From TrEMBL:
GO BP term, example: lipid metabolic process
Taxonomy, superkingdom: Eukaryota
Keywords on record: Acyltransferase, Lipid metabolism, Membrane, Transferase, Transmembrane, Transmembrane helix
Gene name as annotated: Lpcat2
Protein name: PCAT2 acyltransferase
GO MF entry, a single one: 1-acylglycerophosphocholine O-acyltransferase activity
Protein backbone atom coordinates (compact mmCIF):
# COMPACT_ATOMS: atom_id res chain seq x y z
CA UNK A 1 0.00 0.00 0.00
CA UNK A 2 2.83 2.44 0.84
CA UNK A 3 4.60 1.73 -2.46
CA UNK A 4 1.33 2.30 -4.33
CA UNK A 5 0.88 5.65 -2.57
CA UNK A 6 4.44 6.63 -3.53
CA UNK A 7 3.87 5.65 -7.15
CA UNK A 8 0.79 7.85 -7.26
CA UNK A 9 2.01 10.75 -5.09
CA UNK A 10 5.48 11.20 -6.59
CA UNK A 11 4.29 12.14 -10.11
CA UNK A 12 1.56 14.37 -8.67
CA UNK A 13 4.07 16.15 -6.46
CA UNK A 14 6.56 16.57 -9.31
CA UNK A 15 3.88 17.99 -11.62
CA UNK A 16 2.64 20.34 -8.89
CA UNK A 17 6.13 21.56 -8.02
CA UNK A 18 6.95 22.10 -11.70
CA UNK A 19 3.75 24.11 -12.13
CA UNK A 20 4.51 26.19 -9.00
CA UNK A 21 8.07 26.77 -10.22
CA UNK A 22 6.81 28.03 -13.57
CA UNK A 23 4.34 30.33 -11.80
CA UNK A 24 7.18 31.67 -9.67
CA UNK A 25 9.29 32.23 -12.80
CA UNK A 26 6.39 34.05 -14.47
CA UNK A 27 5.83 36.25 -11.41
CA UNK A 28 9.54 37.05 -11.17
CA UNK A 29 9.67 37.82 -14.89
CA UNK A 30 6.71 40.21 -14.66
CA UNK A 31 8.10 41.93 -11.55
CA UNK A 32 11.49 42.54 -13.17
CA UNK A 33 10.32 43.27 -16.73
CA UNK A 34 11.64 46.70 -17.83
CA UNK A 35 12.82 47.31 -14.30
CA UNK A 36 14.41 50.74 -13.94
CA UNK A 37 17.96 50.59 -12.57
CA UNK A 38 18.07 46.81 -12.85
CA UNK A 39 20.11 45.44 -9.96
CA UNK A 40 21.34 48.85 -8.84
CA UNK A 41 18.09 50.33 -7.51
CA UNK A 42 15.70 48.46 -5.21
CA UNK A 43 12.36 47.18 -6.49
CA UNK A 44 9.58 49.50 -5.42
CA UNK A 45 5.80 49.62 -5.36
CA UNK A 46 3.86 46.83 -7.01
CA UNK A 47 7.05 45.10 -8.16
CA UNK A 48 8.35 44.69 -4.61
CA UNK A 49 4.94 43.63 -3.25
CA UNK A 50 4.55 41.13 -6.07
CA UNK A 51 7.89 39.51 -5.35
CA UNK A 52 7.30 39.41 -1.62
CA UNK A 53 3.74 38.11 -1.61
CA UNK A 54 3.60 35.94 -4.72
CA UNK A 55 6.98 34.26 -4.41
CA UNK A 56 6.61 33.82 -0.66
CA UNK A 57 3.20 32.19 -1.11
CA UNK A 58 4.31 29.97 -3.97
CA UNK A 59 7.38 28.84 -2.03
CA UNK A 60 5.25 27.96 1.00
CA UNK A 61 2.85 25.98 -1.18
CA UNK A 62 5.76 24.18 -2.88
CA UNK A 63 7.20 23.08 0.46
CA UNK A 64 3.73 21.97 1.57
CA UNK A 65 3.40 19.91 -1.62
CA UNK A 66 6.78 18.34 -0.81
CA UNK A 67 5.38 17.35 2.58
CA UNK A 68 6.86 20.02 4.84
CA UNK A 69 4.65 21.82 7.33
CA UNK A 70 6.41 24.64 9.12
CA UNK A 71 5.09 26.35 12.21
CA UNK A 72 6.62 29.64 13.29
CA UNK A 73 6.89 30.31 17.00
CA UNK A 74 7.33 33.91 17.96
CA UNK A 75 7.43 36.91 15.65
CA UNK A 76 9.67 37.40 12.65
CA UNK A 77 11.75 40.58 13.02
CA UNK A 78 10.64 43.41 10.74
CA UNK A 79 12.89 45.28 8.35
CA UNK A 80 13.14 48.24 10.71
CA UNK A 81 14.10 45.98 13.64
CA UNK A 82 16.62 43.88 11.73
CA UNK A 83 17.82 45.02 8.30
CA UNK A 84 20.13 41.99 8.28
CA UNK A 85 18.55 38.63 9.10
CA UNK A 86 20.96 35.81 9.86
CA UNK A 87 19.93 32.20 9.23
CA UNK A 88 22.26 29.29 9.82
CA UNK A 89 23.38 26.81 8.75
CA UNK A 90 22.72 27.81 5.16
CA UNK A 91 23.73 24.68 3.36
CA UNK A 92 20.63 23.14 1.84
CA UNK A 93 17.35 23.76 0.08
CA UNK A 94 15.74 24.28 3.50
CA UNK A 95 16.96 27.88 3.28
CA UNK A 96 13.98 28.46 0.99
CA UNK A 97 11.66 27.84 3.93
CA UNK A 98 13.34 30.64 5.91
CA UNK A 99 13.15 32.94 2.87
CA UNK A 100 9.44 32.23 2.36
CA UNK A 101 8.61 32.78 6.03
CA UNK A 102 10.50 36.09 6.18
CA UNK A 103 8.87 37.63 3.09
CA UNK A 104 11.52 36.79 0.47
CA UNK A 105 14.44 38.97 1.60
CA UNK A 106 17.52 39.67 -0.50
CA UNK A 107 20.07 36.91 -0.22
CA UNK A 108 23.79 36.59 -0.76
CA UNK A 109 24.45 34.38 -3.78
CA UNK A 110 27.17 33.32 -6.20
CA UNK A 111 27.17 35.27 -9.46
CA UNK A 112 26.95 32.00 -11.41
CA UNK A 113 23.49 31.32 -9.95
CA UNK A 114 22.02 34.27 -11.87
CA UNK A 115 22.65 32.54 -15.19
CA UNK A 116 20.74 29.38 -14.24
CA UNK A 117 17.58 28.95 -16.34
CA UNK A 118 14.32 29.62 -14.46
CA UNK A 119 16.00 29.80 -11.03
CA UNK A 120 18.22 32.68 -12.18
CA UNK A 121 15.18 34.81 -13.03
CA UNK A 122 13.57 34.04 -9.67
CA UNK A 123 16.82 34.77 -7.87
CA UNK A 124 17.30 38.04 -9.78
CA UNK A 125 13.85 39.21 -8.60
CA UNK A 126 15.05 38.84 -4.99
CA UNK A 127 17.81 41.35 -5.78
CA UNK A 128 20.64 39.32 -4.30
CA UNK A 129 23.97 40.59 -3.12
CA UNK A 130 26.17 38.88 -5.70
CA UNK A 131 29.51 37.31 -4.82
CA UNK A 132 31.98 36.66 -7.63
CA UNK A 133 34.55 34.00 -6.88
CA UNK A 134 36.84 35.29 -9.64
CA UNK A 135 37.00 38.82 -8.18
CA UNK A 136 39.66 39.17 -5.48
CA UNK A 137 37.83 42.15 -3.95
CA UNK A 138 34.50 40.33 -3.91
CA UNK A 139 34.47 39.69 -0.18
CA UNK A 140 35.12 43.35 0.61
CA UNK A 141 32.55 44.46 -1.99
CA UNK A 142 29.95 42.05 -0.57
CA UNK A 143 30.39 43.39 2.95
CA UNK A 144 30.15 46.96 1.64
CA UNK A 145 26.95 46.17 -0.30
CA UNK A 146 25.31 44.45 2.68
CA UNK A 147 26.21 47.44 4.84
CA UNK A 148 24.86 49.89 2.24
CA UNK A 149 21.55 48.01 2.05
CA UNK A 150 21.26 47.67 5.82
CA UNK A 151 21.72 51.42 6.23
CA UNK A 152 19.23 52.31 3.45
CA UNK A 153 16.37 52.88 5.94
CA UNK A 154 13.98 50.41 4.35
CA UNK A 155 14.61 51.13 0.67
CA UNK A 156 16.07 47.63 0.22
CA UNK A 157 14.48 44.48 1.63
CA UNK A 158 16.09 42.63 4.51
CA UNK A 159 19.29 40.80 3.65
CA UNK A 160 19.49 37.21 4.80
Amino acid sequence: QTVLQGVILLPLRLISITFLLLLAWLSASIATFCQPGRGVLPLQGWRRRMVQTTLSGLTRVAYFVMGFQVKVKGKVASLSEAPIFVAAPHSSFFDGIVCALTGMPSIVSRAENLSTPVFGTILRSLQPVVVSRQDHDSRKNTVAEITRRALSRGQWPQVI
